[in-house]
Amino acid sequence: VAASVQFSHAPSDRDIADRLWAGKTHLAYAYRSLLESGALLANGSDAPIEELDPVAGIRAGVLRTLDEREGWHAEQAISVQQALAATTVNPAWLTGDERRRGKLVPGYLADLVVLDRDLLSCPPAELPDVQVIATMLGGRWVHNPPPWE
Questions:
Q1: Domain boundaries, the chain
Q2: Cβ neighbours of residue 24 closer than 8 Å, sequence gap 6 or more
Q3: CATH topology for 2-143?
Q4: For a pLDDT cut of 90, what percent of the chain falls above it?
C-alpha cells in the first residue's frame, strides 16, 4: 500500500482541524502510523496550495509545526531519513520511474538541491534554518551553479 501525502498539510491545517475536528485530530495526518503499518509514503507539495519547497515539506513531516509551537500530534512525526525517502525514492517508485529518478546514481536524471548542511546529521531544531545553495534539474544547473564560496 502506498499513500500519497503532503507533510505540509499537518502543521498548516492544525488550527482549523482543532476547531472543526475537536477530539478527532489524532486520526488525521497520521504519517508515523502509516509507516508503521507498512505503507510506503510518497510526499508531494500540493502546490500552489502549499509551498513548493521540498525542504519545507521534509521539515513539516519531521517537526509538524510551522512556528514556535510544539509539533502538532508529535507522536506522528517521522525521521529526516523517512521524510527524505518519502520525497525522493518513494515518489519515483510510485510513478514507475524508479529506474530514472529518485536517487543520485550514474544514469539517473539528476534532479537535486545543494543545501547548506547535511539534513541527516543536523539537529531537527535546525531544519527551519536550512538554505538551498543551488538547484539542478535534469542534470542542468538552474539556480546558482558552482563554484560556491
A1: 2-143
A2: none
A3: TIM Barrel (3.20.20)
A4: 91
pLDDT in tens, 69-114: 999 999 999 999 999 999 999 999 999 999 999 999 999 998 999 9
Place of cell 519531521: 62
CA-closest candidate to residue 94, choices 44, 51, 57? 44
User: Cell numbers at residue 39, please?
Assistant: 505503507
Strands, DSSP E only, in the chain?
2-5, 40-43, 112-115, 132-137, 140-143
**Residue appearing with cell numbers 531537527:** 124
| Look-up of cell digits 499537518 | 10
pLDDT, residue 110, reads 85
Q: What is the DSSP string of 94-118?
A: HTT-TTTSSS--TTS---EEEESS-
Would you state the torsion angle of the CA atoms of residues 99, 103, 105, 109, taken in this order, to the nearest 10 degrees?
70
CA distances from residue 25 to 2, 8, 130 in whole angstroms, order as listed: 22, 15, 29
Which phi-psi region, left, alpha or beta, contains residue 114 (left: φ > 0; alpha: ψ -120 to 50)? beta
